[in-house]
Amino acid sequence: MTAVFLCLSTTAWSGGGVAEERAWIEHAETLVAAAKGHAVATEFQRDVEAQRERLRGIVRQEGPQPTPELRQLHVSMILLNALLKSASDCHQGGRVVCPAQLLRQLDAQVNVVKGQLKAVQG
């Protein structure tokens, strides 16, 4: 697992790769699906927190001068993460139970992030 992470880190650090962003977005999609499926709240909260830390590393790794497109992608990923955090706070009986409006916002933000990823990839 460490070797894969190091390989992805090297790709993203070299400037042209967005492998870490892509992997983060794919996992975020999985978390959105878990929220819709009434995931176990404690596990979901742990996953969202880990996702936040992973995003922090992605943004820091890019450095202070990312391209405008990449900066916007990161901003959108941060917003998606904030929505996931909101979803992790919505629980009843040990399960994630989100209002329909939040689920729609999550879906919309995933689509925004995926579109921006395509633009960054060129």
Global mean pLDDT: 88
The helix count comes to 5
**What portion of residues belong to β-strands?**
under 5%
Q: What level of helicity do the residues show?
A: over 70%
- Name the overall outline: elongated
Number of strands: 2
Structural class: mainly alpha
Q: Please give the domain count.
A: 1
Rg, alpha carbons: 15 Å
Sketch the topology as an H/E string, one letter per element. HHHHEEH
Poorly predicted parts: 1-16
The termini sit apart by 28 Å
Description of the molecule:
This protein is mainly α and 122 residues long. 78% of the residues lie in helices and 3% in strands. It has five helices and two strands. A two-stranded antiparallel sheet has the order 1-2. Helix 2 runs antiparallel to helix 3 and helix 2 (19-36) packs parallel to helix 4 (68-88). It starts with a helix and ends with a helix. The model is unreliable at 1-16 (pLDDT under 50).
Helix and strand arrangement:
Blueprint: H1 2-13, H2 19-36, H3 41-62, H4 68-88, E1 91-92, E2 95-96, H5 100-121
Antiparallel strand pairs: 1-2
Helix pairs in contact: 2-3, 2-4, 2-5, 3-4, 4-5
